[in-house]
Amino acid sequence: MLDTPQITESPARQAAVIHLTIPRAEMQAQMGPAIDELIAAVVAQGVGPAGPVFSHHFRMEPGLFDFEVGVPVSGPVAPAGRVKAGALPAARVARTVLHGGYEGLPGGWGQFMEWIDRQGLGKTDDLWEVYVAGPHSDPDPAAWRTELNQPLN
């Protein structure tokens, strides 16, 4: 289920990130270890996490994802392994929240993009998800919440 989409201003957020370019089929295998690596690095540096984990997608081809998995931080990030300093950009975005497990993301994004198109809004090439509530906060997928953000032209 999707919340009613809204248009809002999203502020820039300082973050620690790991850049991944992986086949879509490897998403589950790669995402968890990247999140664990990020959290360990920001905790060790004493700068986070300062908010929920996100994924900022630059390019999504049918079989390939080019994105950063990241976590907001409260101060500068020193490079550590694959972890580097990054940010979510300030942007005017269309935003909604998907309720439920991650298997609903493809359909949720499809419905969300249809809504954006019906509104006649111009989209940028990138988009991001914020994992507001997930397996880290509740084992029941019915309680999970993923914020979907589509920057607008």
Automatic annotation (TrEMBL):
<dbReference type="InterPro" id="IPR011256">
    <property type="entry name" value="Reg_factor_effector_dom_sf"/>
</dbReference>
<dbReference type="InterPro" id="IPR010499">
    <property type="entry name" value="AraC_E-bd"/>
</dbReference>
<feature type="domain" description="AraC effector-binding">
    <location>
        <begin position="3"/>
        <end position="153"/>
    </location>
</feature>
<dbReference type="InterPro" id="IPR029442">
    <property type="entry name" value="GyrI-like"/>
</dbReference>
<protein>
    <submittedName>
        <fullName>AraC family transcriptional regulator</fullName>
    </submittedName>
</protein>
<dbReference type="Pfam" id="PF06445">
    <property type="entry name" value="GyrI-like"/>
</dbReference>
